[in-house]
């Protein structure tokens, strides 16, 4: 992938000595707003945050509904700030549960008169924004005993006089704003989100004790992937008569063996900046490999993935050996992809030769022994094109 993608925007958060101690993470296209869960979820799996943020604490804004879909990152010190105007006593149990899970929570512009001590106790940080509050209001609120014990962060500092006054009044606080550091774009290499999910699924599938519930947990890391997997259960391919509402039930209907195939499809279709025909070609090859495998070796598994993943370098702009090192695939699949060995490798060679019209490279005499004529091979190819078109609509 290109190395100049804008991954996110950030502002430095400094201490009294103007030393950067944290980064405020912002969406690149909406730098003044709170973040949505899709952006934040993708951020954690698409980017090496530990490396980019130099292992400093990261601050970002969210809300309770979005927080439930965010992956907890044990290797990243992060604080999630929630809008105080949207918090009420009814949220106490949910906030307490998030704290027990290990989340660090902050509250934005809190007025201690509006909350109980117990509710405020679920927050370890408090953020005050000077575009919403005056300096006098901020200092008064920070001096309240229920707020003073928290880690204080003052944002939207626009003038030197503001910063100087805050340094004196709140020596242990954190500070940010355009006067200190303007918003900067962070560019780098984006790791495909679905690739990380696929790796987790492959590892889980190699564990005999993995259940549909465990696999569903990985699927549900991404709302779009969850939607498309559920949508799949309503196609003619599976003919589900049930109203499927979660990933676990969808996996039970689809079957664990087919799950990786569909996640792989979604992964490639999610890559931006590639022509639509490339995805169609990859799916057609995968379907052709699967059909040919079923005709020649009915019990052989993995042909679809071999066909699909043979296109990985064109989608991800990396060499296939490098890409396969990161994927815990069966050795037969890797051997087929890298050196065209084994039955799967033989199938891939035939399919590639057929696609290129290199008839001299197709062992028709051996195929006849398997009761597969030239006409039968043509029919398999045409059928694979039809299957690919159907898959392309999911």
Automatic annotation (TrEMBL):
PROSITE patterns: HDOD. GO terms for molecular function: kinase activity. Signal peptide: none annotated. Residues 191-375 form the HDOD domain. InterPro entries: HDOD (IPR013976), RNase_Y/CdgJ (IPR052340). Pfam families: HDOD (PF08668). It comes from the Bacteria. Keywords: Kinase, Transferase. This is Histidine kinase. It comes from Marinomonas profundimaris. The lineage of its organism: Bacteria, Pseudomonadati, Pseudomonadota, Gammaproteobacteria, Oceanospirillales.
